[in-house]
């Protein structure tokens, strides 16, 4: 078989050095970029949050550069698995359902959002390190948990005002509660990280160990919103984008969807006061609402035994004489 078929048979890989062969230096550059951005923004952002601060611009740039295209691919991929009307109907229903539940029970939804994000990020990082077997799973759990839990545990004074806005006035959220919840995620993640890092070093996978240390240090020392943007923009989103291996036509569709999202976001942003609580509510509750169907679609793709996205959001079916990427190859 040709080289193209050989690559397909390897499965949907979250490893940029094997998924497409076009990103061999990304793994070596990722840690340096993360540390550079962290150092450049740390002194300017830990003091607080304002719409024009370095933290705000880091979030905006990260969201536009990789966050929106990463989510926009849902509209390219999803309709290929079912009728477009059904897909968009279910997607919109899920978004509206999450927003409605948030209005009714914001505290429950906030906790569920953090835990679902931990699972989603851990799955992506674990697939990337699947060659480490169970240690790869531990590595994913650790990096995702550190990215989410450490900022809550170590910087509750910075995070609490933002999270309080998301409570919609229903819960008296204190820094102590935020730090306690963060420790529930961060402390086990750090312990697991020690085990995973040791296993990676024994397997001579120094990059996996360095990744755990880098993400933990950035999450512990940089403004929480900036540290999350760094993790999302340099680890989670690129691995998701590379794994899908979308071609030029698929990217064009995704960019159109991104442009549409930006226009809607700009319109909504003009209706709220950027420095007020409504801005945080629109951004973070909207993000949570989109995360739900995005997570469901990602898990659906990973569970498919005979189909996989390869090009322009199209599906390769073995029944049509084309090779498929078995879901079992995603996990060792």
Task: Label this structure with key terms.
13 helices, globular, 332 residues, mainly alpha, disordered C terminus, disordered N terminus
- As a percent range, the share of strand residues is under 5%
The rounded Rg comes to 20 Å
Cα separation of the termini = 23 Å
Global geometry = globular
Number of domains: 1
Number of helices: 13
Oligomer: single chain
The residue fraction in helices comes out at over 70%
Write the layout of secondary structure elements.
Elements: H1 3-9, H2 26-45, H3 54-72, H4 74-77, H5 84-104, H6 106-128, H7 134-154, H8 156-166, H9 175-202, H10 206-221, H11 224-244, H12 248-271, H13 277-303
Would you give an account of this structure?
With 332 residues, the chain is an all-alpha fold. The chain has one domain. The chain is globular. The chain is 73% helix and 0% strand.
